[in-house]
């Protein structure tokens, strides 16, 4: 077995890894508390309402390299008053050596799945540092998001149809 690997390496026939992460980073981070300091007292008296929106974008950098951006927006309100708004765009550079039919699912399911734990930690730390309880995001089903995106694209009327 070792001889076969050595022979493949010597012959230059070694296959590239199907999936590599070259880096990950915060592209954009915003945290706003527009109604401070009064909102902290209101939060002690009333239960906040939190909404979270997650989206994924992918951009081709080269033949096999892609940037995947996980976008998270969390809005917290107490009644009609905004407690905080947290927006994060967390990016990763991925090298994908997969067949073309697997490329889109890798970019929109597997890559964001790899980025999510790091983005989740950033959101939790940011809300905690903003004097709120740390916001622990629930796991995201990126496969369901991908299927919903495909379904929405299939249901769009074709260009030129009225």
TrEMBL record:
Origin species: Terasakiella brassicae
Pfam family membership, one: SecB
GO terms, biological process: protein folding; protein tetramerization; protein transport
SUPFAM superfamilies in alphabetical order: SecB-like
Keywords: Chaperone, Cytoplasm, Protein transport, Translocation, Transport
Its job: One of the proteins required for the normal export of preproteins out of the cell cytoplasm. It is a molecular chaperone that binds to a subset of precursor proteins, maintaining them in a translocation-competent state. It also specifically binds to its receptor SecA.
GO MF annotations, alphabetized: unfolded protein binding
Main location (coarse class): cytoplasm
GO cellular component, one term: cytoplasm
Organism superkingdom: Bacteria
Name this protein carries in UniProt: Protein-export protein SecB
InterPro entries: SecB (IPR003708), SecB-like_sf (IPR035958)
Quaternary structure and interacting proteins, as annotated: Homotetramer, a dimer of dimers. One homotetramer interacts with 1 SecA dimer.
Record localization: Cytoplasm
Family the entry assigns: Belongs to the SecB family.
